[in-house]
Amino acid sequence: MRLVRIILMAGLLPGLALAQSAGEQALAEGEALMTEAQRSQQRIDQLDDATRDALNRYRNAIQQKDQLADYNKQLAGMVESQRRELAELQAQLATIEETQAEVMPLLQRMLASLEQFIELDVPFLLDERTDRLEQLKALMIRPEVTVAEKYRRVLEAYQIESDYGRTLEAWRGSLDVDGSERVVEFLRLGRLMLFYQTLDGHTQGYWDNASRQWQPLPASYNRTLQQGLNIARQQQTPALLRLPLPPVSEQGAAQ
After folding, report:
1. CB within 8 A of 202, min separation 6: which ones?
2. Which stretches does DSSP call E strand in the chain?
3. Is the pLDDT of residue 139 over 80?
4. How much is the pLDDT for 250?
5. pLDDT tens digits, residue range 9-24?
6. Within 10 Å of residue 154's Cβ, how many Cβ atoms?
7. Do 169 and 232 meet the contact criterion of CB atoms below 8 Å apart?
8. What's the CA gap between 102 and 92, in Å, rounded?
9. Whole-prediction pTM value?
10. DSSP secondary-structure letter at 169?
11. 3-class DSSP assignment, residue 176
């Protein structure tokens, strides 16, 4: 009986070995399938991530496209606005150039009239007035100075000349008296009369604009002229002065 059991076991050993080998092979194949399945899942996950990244990049590109479209639209509006402003500036510039072409001859005529007026006027402060006139002439030919500034300076000179007619002024200067150069006191009554008196008070006279020369005054005007000089220098309160005045012409009376 024992012998039979041993024989049976001996006969079963090859079968068991084969069964064990098949199980191990099946187990190995299962593990290989599991590994491949994991790898496939990893590839799927990677593809899914790549798809999400691509989708996000696509959405960002669409958003950037929309933003660029809005920016280009705004930029086009700015460019168009600048084009209109440039056209307006060019039109204004053309108008300014036309105005300058009209104003400059006017300024030249105003200077010529001012020069003639100074030449025919009572000869007071001639150095100051002629120097101002020469400066204006030099200013007219300077291209870097605007027409507005040139116009302002000419009007300023006219205003100064106009103010002379409403002021009383006294100053000391030199004058040819009886053939000799002497230092005298000048007294200007607006631009109506111009007097002089020597420093010793013995000789005095007035400018006769009709004859364009100095005329003497009698000694009786000595004290009156001295009072006028003191009033002009604010050394004496204003008072009524008896001084000779030019006759009023019929034309001036009519005006």
Report:
1. 219, 222
2. 168-177, 180-189, 193-198, 204-208, 213-217
3. yes
4. 44
5. 555 555 555 556 766 7
6. 19
7. yes
8. 15
9. 0.58
10. E
11. strand
